[in-house]
Amino acid sequence: MLPQIAFFLLAAVMLISAVLVITRRNAVHSAVWLIATLFAVGGIYLLQQAEFLLAVQIIVYVGGIMVLFLFVIMLVNLDVAVRQTPFSRQWLLGLVTVLVLSGELAWGFYHEIRGGFALPPANAAPATAGNTQAIGLALYRNYMLPVEIASVLLLVAMVGAVVMAKKKLD
Amino acid sequence: MSNAIPTSWYLILATALFSVGVIGVLTRRNVIIILMSIELILNAVNINLVAFSQYFRSVDGQAFAIFVITDAAAEAAIGLGLIIALFRNKATVNADEIDLLKW
User: Fold this and answer.
1) What average pLDDT score do residues B63-89 get?
2) A43: nearest CA in chain B?
């Protein structure tokens, strides 16, 4: 019973703060609500027995990416944007599109569940080794080449961000 | 009874989070909030990956989730660099005022 209560609590926090992210007028408020959403997603990871991902979520997302977001929000002047309307002209069309998309997805779920493909609860994995050790073995043994490619991607992103954000030398 | 949450619950939750993210991308004017909505979408994908990782009792889905987080970090760095360059040239962060390629 306790995992279900935790699941619904985390799901409620996640969805409410996600809606607040996309409706706040001030971008700083959106960023703070996004941090709440990311913490709730980390709680869901913990519920799914992915402890290492919870640590990565908090260190990389909340500690790295959100600080970057807040810095950029401080850099660009938002006094004008707060007074303008926060939604674009085609917001109604976008909303209808997403409602159709969600309807399709809900229809698919409904038929999958009625067709007997309801996924049963997963059994707890036999915890022979820790979660971190298992992920480390998977990353550095089976996925060694993707890890190298990801490191090159991060290097390219870092150089690209520096090149784009620096002032023109004239 | 250590974990009695069906995998479909996670999928439905991820669908809801994904839909909220797509609404944000399609309806907001502020480019920074559009980038935040993309982070919401990537988190929904990660919930799905970890749910199936748990369902199949394999750690591969969590390894993929780490790659997704890597991509999110790279995307945030590049996107925010673009926003700074854009703000320097156009002095706006509204997506519908950035129409240099329109004629």
Assistant:
1) 91
2) B47
Cβ within 8 Å of A, B 71-100: 71-78, 80-85, 87-88, 91, 93-96
- Separation of alpha carbons B55 and A70, rounded Å: 36
What is the distance in angstroms between the CA of the first residue and the CA of the last residue of chain B? 62
Residues from chain A that touch B59, judged by Cβ atoms under 8 A, are 131, 134-135, 138
> Cβ–Cβ of B72/A65 closer than 8 Å?
yes
**CA nearest to B23, candidates A19, A15, A17, A10:** A19
DSSP A22: H
pLDDT at A78 over 70: no
CA distance B19 to A95: 10
Cα separation, A157 vs A168, whole angstroms: 19
B66-78 residue pLDDT tens: 999 999 999 999 9
ipTM greater than 0.95: no
Q: B94 has which bridge partners? A: B30
Residues A85, B29: C-beta atoms closer than 8 Å? yes
- B28 SS3 class: strand
For A137, phi then psi, to 5°, come to -65, -40
Residue B28 makes CB contacts below 8 A (sequence gap 6+) with A22, A86, A87, A88, B34, B37, B95
